[in-house]
Design brief:
Strand order of the largest sheet: 9-8-7-15-14
Order of helices and strands: HEHEHEEEEHHHEHHHEHEHEHEEEEHHEH
CATH architecture of the largest domain: Alpha-Beta Barrel
Radius of gyration: 24 Å
CATH superfamily of the largest domain: Glycoside hydrolase/deacetylase
CATH class of the largest domain: Alpha Beta
Strand content: 5-15%
Shape: elongated
Length: 447
Amino acid sequence: MPTFLFLINQFMLLYSSYKTPRLSYIVDFVNKEIFNEPINITTDKDEFIHYEYPKLNYSPEEFSEQEFFIKSTGLLFEEGITLQSIECFEVNYYKVFFETRGDLPFDIFAASFYLLSRYEEYLPHIPDEYGRYAHTNSLAYKEGFLQMPLINIWMQDFKKALHQKFPSLVFRRNSFKFIPTYDIDIAYSFLHKGWKRNMGGLFKSMVSGQWSLFGERMQVLMKKRKDPFDSYEWLDSLHLYCRTRAYYFFLVAEEQKKFDKNISPDKKALQDLIRYHGSGYTVGIHPSWQSGDNTELLTKEVGWLEEILDKEVKYSRQHYIRMRLPTTYQTLIDVGIDKDFSMGYGGINGFRASVASSFYWYDLEREMQTPLMLFPFCFMDATSYYEQKLTPQQTLYELMNYYHAIKKVNGLMVTIWHNQFLGIDPQFAGWKEVYEVFLKDEVYWDI
């Protein structure tokens, strides 16, 4: 009985002069990452000083050697968004910032909050050619840690430091997780496009002298050859072999224009494809480019997908990673989305939020933790191919680097692939084999 009571009281008590939504948010994140029992926050100095179990002082003043002390900086006690003075330095061969004193040389809470909240994306910046936040603006890119799950590394060292001070503390045992995801924004190359689009494609091939493409389209339309973007059965077999649970995001744009090139959602072929995947996988919305500034249109697209699936749609990923904070995430919440997979860059692979863990989005504009859970991705095939200009062999090397970096911190690895990269289109020769090697030889046994 006494032992049981001892274990009950072994939770960490954190003292801070003030309890703010920002502090509560980052403490909740730390709880999820490293603790079995939640950290309790107190603003009562006497309660903290007399507490006999592991305790963490996050304030300007140190009380005793029996506490873990981090001298707090100001970010978590501010409101609003202001330009922060950030100077990075190295600790244990990795970058940190918000230098302070105590048992850690930097304010791990404030630094983690800055990266997770994407604070810098609210500041004035020059967007990329698609109007998105450009990775070249980011601290991670400028300081050379974009390819690292830096917050997870910080948390591992934080855990070690806490254990040195309090050997009796029990920590959470995390495990590596892998989630394969697919964006279906062009379900088929030739099939189900309608006679106008196919006639236009045939005419274009004739005029440009692309007779092999002309012949390929004709063979597919005459059912003598498989559509080059049709990789669905192959993926089913791969998932079965590797025991993966995949997520599919479907574009259901009513109008096919600009970057929205999928077949119409009123086509039976697309509806059948969506229903098929909905019966065996998790299916989410891939909001069209047109819906990026049109909440009413996004609401319609979610409604169309729900009608096709005959169930609620709670998952999302932005088409072309078209995302602007805070409006995009606020809109997703308004239309009923619970989980979003858009946290990553469209212009480069890496860790946009410097983390390989799921986390709740903090709305800096409204100063509150939201119910929207974010699942950051570190790799997208189209980014490697179109932006980074990598070969399939170079891409495999890139994938394995991310895999080993995330495995080392027992984090979450999310990848994005498109069906056309995994089909039989000669343009993407070798990419299908890269993905198969990656899943079969390296990852599946860890899932």
